[in-house]
Amino acid sequence: MIAITGATGQLGRLVIEQLLQNIPANQLIALVRNPAKASDLQARGLQVRAADYTQPAALEAALQGVEKLLLISSSEVGQRLEQHRNVVAAAKRSGVTLLAYTSILNAQDSQMDLAHEHRETEQLIKASGIPFVLLRNGWYTENYTAGIPTALQFNVLLGSAGDGKISLAARADYAAAAAEVLVRDDQAGKIYELAGDAAYTLADFAAELSRQTGKQIPYNNLPEAEYRGILQNAGLPDWLASLLASSDASAAQGALFDESHQLSRLIGRATTPLADTIRTALAEGATAAAH
């Protein structure tokens, strides 16, 4: 049995779609905080089990019979390590034979604020004795396409990434990688540095957005503190504004650049071009506006 945590999340659902191409639905377990949100998955034949990262006893029950587990990192930055510790401990007690974890690009030496919890999670996974595979994911293109409506509203793309090159790939590319390691038999001990085939600056992103919309949308690079303040004034929580601004600042120093092409080799195809993901985001935005 293969289990996926965070199965109703954006990445989790994409991983399940990939797995269903090779694995019968009754061999997949969707681990979710709220089973009511997974009724569609249950209708398709998946087992749905309640699994909250903060409830160790429930986690252990949910992992009974699981051979391979994909631990999608918690979205609760600052609380991740303890939550991940609960999952790893439950996996150990339940006899999981392969634990795959979605980490961050170059986790061992990344200076990104996000890297700390990922690095410590990797350490506790290694210390657990469970055979593991680490999926060190780079930046999702969707991290930036989410800001397209604001960029179109104000005719400018803001950030703090300078001329830093970012090896972007679509969320679906990373989902395909996770599914691939879960269906293979030779993955224990492997560590993948996963990133897009092509690298882009935010000026490149703005230029492509301008090309597709017919508008002139320049990239305005700001000091990290100023960008953080703008995000806070826009209503983002302080922690999220700080995270986004510091991530951009790290990208300016090359923290999100990678040219190893491990992702495309793993999934057996090129990663999704920036233009395609922007096109999809614009189409989805137009559809939403029509409704």
TrEMBL record:
InterPro entries: NAD(P)-bd_dom (IPR016040), NAD(P)-bd_dom_sf (IPR036291), NmrA-type_oxidoreductase (IPR052718). The lineage of its organism: Bacteria, Pseudomonadati, Pseudomonadota, Gammaproteobacteria, Cellvibrionales. One of its GO terms (molecular function) is NAD(P)H dehydrogenase (quinone) activity. It comes from Cellvibrio fibrivorans. This is NAD(P)H dehydrogenase (Quinone). It is an enzyme of class 1 (oxidoreductase). Residues 6-179 form the NAD(P)-binding domain. The keyword Oxidoreductase applies. Keywords: Oxidoreductase.
